[in-house]
Amino acid sequence: LAALGAAMLRRSLWLCLCLCSCPARGLRVHEYLYFQVLSPGDIRYIFTATPAKDFGGVFNTRYDQIHLVPADPPEACGELNNGVFIQDQIALVERGGCSFLSKTRVIQEHGGRAVIIADNAYDNDSFYIEMIQDSTRRTADIPALFLLGRDGYMIRRSLEQHGLPWAVISIPVNVTSIPTYEMMQPPWTFW
C-alpha cells in the first residue's frame, strides 16, 4: 500500500513538473466562441470557432438570427460577386490565396459584420489554426473567427444540396447555459 502511494506521488510530481515547465500549447476554453446554425435543419448544430489572435473586433452584440453567407469566390481575396448579400451579415470564407487579415478587410469593405474563415483542409476536424496579423500593419474592425475545415465544408455542402444562398445562425452562443444533453454538436467533430 505504501509503495502504491509513493508511486502515485511520484507520478503526480512528474505531471506537475511537466505542466509547469512546458510552454502552454493550444487554446484555453475561454478563447473559443460558439455559434449555432438554425437553418437548414440538417446542420442545426452548435459549432466551435476561435477568434483571431491579434486583429479584428469582438462581438458586442448577440445576433439571434443573422445570415451566414458563403463568399463568392470562396477565398475572398478581392472583389466579391455576392458582396451585396454580405452587407450587414456574416461571411463564410475559405482559407488560402491571401492572409487572414486581407480576407477580413475584404468582408469589412463589403459591409459584413464578421467573417468566419474555414480551413481549406476539408478533413480537418480537430486542429485550430492561430490567425495572426500579416506584416502590412493594416487593421480590421470586424470579428474574425477560424472554423475547422470539416465544419465549413459541411455547412457549404448543406447549402448547395438545398440550393440556399446562406444559412441562418445565432452568434455568439453561451454554451454554459445549455444542458449537456441538449447540446447539438456536429456528429463528425470530437468535442
TrEMBL record:
CC per GO annotation: extracellular region
Residues making up the signal peptide according to the UniProt record: 1-26
Record-linked SUPFAM superfamilies: PA domain (SSF52025)
Main location: secreted
Domain PA per the UniProt entry, residue ranges: 68-152
Stretches that traverse the bilayer: none
UniProt entry keywords in alphabetical sequence: Glycoprotein, Secreted, Signal
Pfam families found in the cross-reference section: PA
Glycoprotein keyword on record: yes
InterPro entries: PA_dom_sf, PA_domain, PRADC1-like_PA
UniProt subcellular location: Secreted
Biological role stated in the UniProt entry: Plays a role in the modulation of physical activity and adiposity.
Name listed for the protein in its UniProt record: Protease-associated domain-containing protein 1
Protein species of origin: Chauna torquata (Southern screamer)
